[in-house]
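Could you show me some protein's one-letter sequence and the numbers that encode its backbone in two labelled lines?

___
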Amino acid sequence: MSDEDLFQHVVDSWPHLAACAGLDADAFDLTPVWHRIEPDGQRAVFRAHGKGRTVIAKFDTQLGARPFEARLAAHLAARARFAGVRGLGVPRILAASVPARALVMDFIRGRTAHDAVAAAGDAARRHVVLSDCAGWARHLHDGQLGQKGAMHYRGQLQRVRAWRRDAAEGEGTVAAPRAFVKAADRAIAAMDGASGAPVPRVPVHGDLGLRNLMIRADGTVLGIDFAGASPQPAAADLSRLLTTYASFFPDPREVTRAAAAADLREAIRATEEGYGKVMAPGLRPLMWFDLLKLWQAVPAQAGRRDDFQARRLAGARRLAAVLDQD
C-alpha cells in the first residue's frame, strides 16, 4: 500500500470509527504522528483533535483479521487486569474496526519510557524508570501463571545459528562479524545450558520495549501496542525491556566502557528489583537472543548506518560484553 493509499484509507475509515467512539468526525482534525512498514503490513498513528478533546487513531493496514483481533483482545484483557490499579494502567479503547484494522483510543498526556529515560539526567534516575516499567510488567503477569513447561529455545537457536553462519561465511550481512560470531557462540551456549528447565508461562505483552510504555507527569505507567498474549516465559517481556534500554543507553559518547558496563549491570538489577523476582536463568538466554536480533538488523556497512543504528550497534556490543562476563 502506497502512502497515498494509506492516508486515503484513514480518511475513508475515520467517519465510521468516530461515530462508533461517539465523536463528531467533522469536528476533529487528523494529524499524522508516525507510520512505518513492518513485515505484516503498514502501521500508522494519527492524532485527532477537536472540541477541546484529543484521541489517537491507530491503523494496522494489511494485517490479517486474526492477528488484529489477537492484538485487540490482548489490549482489552490487559486493561481489565489493571482496572482500578493506582499508578499503572492501559489506555481505554473507544472504538475498533476489524475490517479497517483500526482503533480509536484515549490520548495519553505523557511521554514514552524511552523519552523519560533520555531525560533522566543520570544513571540512578534512568534505573528508577526501568524499575517502574518492570513493576508494570509484574502486575501484567501476576496471577496469570500457567503450567510450567520445559524451555528449549528451539526457534531462537535456529535463528541464531543462521545469523552466525552468515557472519562466519563473510556474507557481509552483519556488522562487526567476528564479534558477532563470538556473541552468537555465547548465546548458543547460554540457551543450550538453560534448555529443558521448567519455566512457568504467562500471557506477555509481546513487545515490551521502552517506546511501548508511556509515563504520565504523575508517574503513572501505561502499556500500549500489545503484540499478542501468547503464553511465554515472563522473562520475555523483561528481556525486551532491557535490550531496548541497553541498545541506546547510556550514550557511548558520554561514558567510558567501564562506566557503561556498570550502568548495564545496575539496569539489570533495578529491573529485577522492580519486577520483584530474580529472573535468572531464564532472563539471560533471552537477552542474548534479543541483543543479537537487534545487532543483525543494523546495516553491515558503517557508511549505511544512521546515528540511531550506530548507537544501537554500540549498545548491543556493550550488552554482549556484560553478559559474557557475568
Notes: The chain is about 50% helix and 20% strand.
